[in-house]
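Before the break, one more example. Copy the sequence into your notebook; we will annotate it together after we see the structure.
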Amino acid sequence: MDKSLEKSLLVWLKAQKKACGLFLKLSLWLGMISAVAMVAQAYIIATILDGVIMGQQVVPLTDNAEMVSSSVSIDTYIPHFIALIALMLLRALLAYGRERASFEAGKRLRGHIRAAVMDKLTKLGPAFIKGKPAGSWASIVLEQVEDLQDFYARYLPQISLAGFIPVLILAAVFPINWATGLILLLTAPLIPMFMILVGMGAADANRKNFSALARLSGHFMDRLKGLSTLKLFHRGDAELKVIATASEEFRSRTMSVLRMAFLSSAVLEFFAAVSIAVLAVYFGFSYLGHLDFGYYGAHANISSSTDPQIVGIPFSLFTGLFILILAPEFYQPLRDMGTHYHAKAQAVGAAEALITLLEHPEPEFVGQVHINSIETLSADNLEVFSVDGTRLLGPLSFELKDNQRLALVGPSGAGKTSLLNALLGFLPYKGHLLINGHELAALDLAHWRQHLAWLGQEPQLFHGTVRDNVALADPTLPDDTLWHLLAEANISDFVKAQPLGLDAPVGEQSSGLSVGQAQRIALARALGQKASLFVLDEPTASLDSQSEQAVSSALNRAMAGKMCIMVTHRLDQLDQMDTILVLDKGLIVQRGDYSTLSDTNGLFQTLLRENVESVADIELVPLSVSGSDTQLDSDTPVDIAAEPTKGEAQ
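Here is what the structure looks like once it is written out:
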């Protein structure tokens, strides 16, 4: 990864820490207090061990004299034991408090980032979201946001502690023995230096790993949703090989990240062990009399005893024990920082995708104007663009008044849905798109959408109950109103037949419901908006004839006296439309009512002829069942458009 990019990502990550609140600082302060308690604990342990092992032994002043010792009462060290137990309990409480504070800091940060991501996706709208598979978005919202946890909960506090704790220990060691302080000071930089050398490629490896995971998630999700279709077209084995290839790529990248992690840990442990071994060798040879430097004053005069009755120089293990107890704690923060360095690499890898999304340009709708109803809707030299600036539609002009219905027809890719997305505020535009004379960009989008009832070709119901889905816009709707909406959508009989009625469960992706049933529940939800404008994007697509008639009749009743814009390929049902716009390659090539356009040479007449021919091509042929007397005559009516359930091939 480019160093300037990594630096900018780190700056962004650190700028987000304010979302952690006071918990990040609390975690740091608890760690510092625990470090002070750790030094005090080492002092007490060294004092107790020195007193128990050595007693009051002194080194004789003459070479042929023997070492003298005096008895030590255990009562002398009872206060030390009490203090030691108190410090152990204090450190345990501080460690618990630090873990809780760190987790809470990370949790708040994750909630903040996840909310920012969801808000951004809401602003960018479905036109942008459909540009990636659902699995890729799930990877960003779930896995990549989760990988920020340890960066804020562990890595950021550990950076400060890795500087504070070694300085604290050096401040305690140097006044006792300058040689060991110098050894600690010189060996300390080795650990972060080699940690950086080993982990230089960790961020890049994690970034590639996240990319592979996003691709695998999106690929697997898409294949899972289309599993029935793949089986019907005998593509199961081929797709299995593709998934195996993607999985192998992800496995390879994951193992490369783990390889770096294990190598980094091995390097940290090696240098920490070597540094502690150097200190142990120094004290060993020092106590054997082979080394006589590093102490202040006489070589053995390292005891605090000033008893004049003791003949000779007091001999003590306190210095060696105290420093050797602190030595592992001196390197531990640096080793922990090395361990959490991979949390930094993970966060940097995740931040790239998050920043790309969060800084993506969005439609500029910052208006505050509120309207009470929709009386006129007009476009003048309107051009609609994708979020990345590509022109999708226009320039075009039209006008729609209250109680009028407008149909948009044309071949696939003509820009029909793009116009609806612009009207819903999901795509940027140039020119003029006026609502009651006000520019759409000047309206409060949330308030504007309250006047709209949208129904698409793929009904989107959410996991929950029928009640939850119908009352999505207003959860306080009473049951009587809900039943009335369901009756208007011609689906109340089905809901009443369910054991739980309005509380009947609805699964993910409308599982358990047919497409027609899901569409009619979505229609009931749309009717609950009490909208002035119906925005319909092929609402009867993929429906059988019975469901299509039910949805169409419900829409006709609901749209009485209302404004409507509808995209459709069913040209034979446009006789009730006041105006029809025929689009091709983003431009209006024809306009008029049904009777006028059907009698005029042009694209509409061609599309109408193709539509009629496609219906006429569906012929009923004699069917016979082998081994059975059952036979269907060619004149026997057959329902060839049996309604599929959600999740089956359509």
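Residues 61-65, 298-313, 618-650 have pLDDT under 50 and may be disordered. The first strand starts at residue 58 and ends at 59. Try to locate both features in your own notes.
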